[in-house]
Design goal:
This protein has 244 residues and is mainly alpha-helical. Helices cover 36% and strands 4% of the residues. The protein contains nine helices and two strands, in the order H-H-H-H-H-H-H-H-E-E-H. The radius of gyration is 29 Å and the shape is elongated. The termini are far apart.
Length: 244
Amino acid sequence: MARKRTSTKKTGADKPPASDGPGNSAMKFELKQYNRGRSDAELLADLSRVARVLGKPTVTANEYCEHGIFHSSTLQRRFGSWFKALERANLKRSRVLGITDEELFENLQNVWVSLGRQPVYGDITKPSSKFCAGTYERRFGSWRKALEAFVAFVNSDGPLPAESEQPSQHKPRRTSRQVNLRLRFRVLLRDNFRCVACGRSPATEAGVKLEVDHIKPWSKGGETVVDNLQALCTKCNGGKSNIH
């Protein structure tokens, strides 16, 4: 006598819950931590934590930008200065000595060139920037004032060491061979942060580096002035002949 087959068809209620992917039972959405309104104790505790992580009795603003939960400028505004924040956290005063305005401007220029546009506050972070935005705030009073100081520096006609005359036994020269920071930025800005030979730009292609080179070689009498300079990528500049 033939046995009657029982149905093995599963109903919707018997089906296992749908998976969102291999090994995932459900997708999880999480909000980033909201840092506004944090207490003084929370800010100081995180500053102390960074000091312990680094194994140091003090923390610079740049180090805190790299390792801290908050931004160094948050602590600076809350406690009046970076040094006062360190004091409240029972840490030693820190000081990064020897950073000149020109070094800060050079760093800002490098970020500007890599982006192909004016950087905003949030762009001034590692690895693209050697210094954090708080360093510029402390030096110039605010991020906006730092940008204004940089633009004034670039547009200034005041001499720099690289622009000074250098004596020669053969032929007097008006300018040095070295392209200073101010001239470099003017040329890169004029050439739209692109190589004039191939059109490549660090803003659109990772790894591209721009150099500013003489059109008429300095060794052939060319001067280091804006009209005799051009932006070239390292590849095009390396293949450029010294023949005018």
